[in-house]
Design brief:
With about 350 residues, the chain is α/β, with parallel strands linked by helices. The protein has helices spanning about 1-10, 15-30, 40-50, 70-75, 95-105, 195-205, 215-245, 275-285, 310-320, 330-340, and strands spanning about 35-40, 60-65, 80-85, 110-115, 135-140, 170-175, 190-195, 270, 290, 320. The strands form 2 sheets. Strands 1-7-6-5-4-2-3 form a 7-stranded mixed sheet, sandwiched between helices. A 3-stranded antiparallel sheet has the order 8-10-9.
């Protein structure tokens, strides 16, 4: 709050010094070679696809559970979406689902890129897509994981050496800073490249108009979010442990992380065995709001046909999220836990 108010009373609240500070802070955790601080993830995706030099009609592989703005961005660039389905246990594209979508693509359309959305914080194995021979864009907006809090050095002094962040394997990566993302600045995104050869493609956009760039007032909030991310993630882990224990007594299922990937507890979601309306109505009576996890996805918005992505469309009707955020009070965590235990 102090950071945002300070930015508000300064002479400049548009893109400026605080945006540069945000990029410097983010680089310490994300270890990128070059990044752009932008006003929205949609602008970030647009510039990423533009940087790859795709041509009219080229195919882009995306998940049926991707955010709905993906479809609009592809349409604006006259690119062809190639929808990939997911599984009931893992909500992201896999190598197998990507190959299936490539095999079913329309005649004359070539798959030129894949956008890996880390849905609900679950991270796909990006390295497994490398030998498809097409560029990969990773959307880590929900799966961002900060380096853990470093233990105190000998003598009690803080240890400045922190573990490296989770590596990004794609040509480019998008870190959204919207309201529903793991970190938020109230709106915005970082578009970055880890490898120098890929960063050179983004540098071509270094002088884009200020109207595309993240304002300082948003950058101030995002910088604080980066600095507090490890503490917030530790709190999320504590809450998720309570919810997980409660969920063991229900028939509803959870998604499973891929082997070797630690979940960041972006959300606590359950795939329901009963109807969503029944569960949301029951939760409302307990004065707790549960949300449709995929209401704003391509499948949840009706953009993807059920025949193309049957599992995605099914999950969009059956997956709910329970309140999970770092400032949640202990008594409210217990209320939500009791709700999960007694779900119909």
């Amino acid at each position: 709050m102090d950071a945002v108010l300070t930015a508000m009373v300064e002479d400049q609240i548009g893109p400026g010094e605080r945006s540069r500070l945000l990029l410097q802070t983010a680089k310490e955790q994300l270890h990128f070679d070059f990044a752009l601080a932008l006003r929205s993830p949609a602008i970030a995706l647009h510039l990423a696809l533009l940087s790859l030099g795709l041509k009219d009609g080229d195919g882009v592989l995306i998940s049926g559970l991707s955010p709905r703005y993906y479809a609009q961005t592809l349409a604006d660039l006259r690119l062809t979406p190639l929808y990939c389905d997911v599984s009931f246990s893992f909500p992201c594209i896999t190598r197998e689902s990507a190959e299936k979508a490539i095999g079913a693509k329309p005649e004359g359309v070539q798959a030129r890129c894949i956008v890996l959305h880390h849905t609900l914080g679950y991270a796909p194995d990006a390295a497994s897509f490398a030998d498809l021979g097409i560029p990969v864009i990773e959307d880590i907006s929900q799966s961002y994981t900060p380096p853990p809090l470093a233990p105190a050095a000998e003598g009690g002094a803080p240890n400045k050496e922190a573990a490296a962040a989770k590596p990004v394997h794609g040509t480019f990566a998008i870190l959204g800073l919207e309201e529903r993302d793991m970190l938020t600045s109230g709106g915005g995104a970082l578009l970055f490249a880890s490898a120098r050869r890929d960063a050179s493609l983004l540098r071509a956009h270094a002088n884009i108009p200020a109207e595309y760039c993240l304002p300082d007032i948003n950058a101030a909030l995002a910088t604080v979010q980066f600095r507090e991310a490890a503490r917030n993630m530790a709190r999320r882990h504590e809450i998720a442990q309570v919810y997980t224990q409660a969920s063991l007594s229900t028939a509803h299922k959870r998604f499973v992380s891929q082997e070797g990937s630690e979940y960041n507890n972006y959300a606590f979601a359950l795939v329901l065995e009963t109807g969503m309306k029944e569960v949301t109505s029951y939760a409302r009576k307990k004065e707790i709001i549960v949300e449709n996890a995929f209401e704003q996805s391509l499948a949840g918005s009706g953009i993807v046909d059920t025949a193309e992505c049957p599992v995605s469309c099914s999950l969009a009707l059956r997956t709910v999220m329970f309140p999970l955020y770092p400032r949640l009070r202990s008594q409210d965590v217990q209320r939500v836990s009791r709700l999960i235990t007694t779900l119909p």
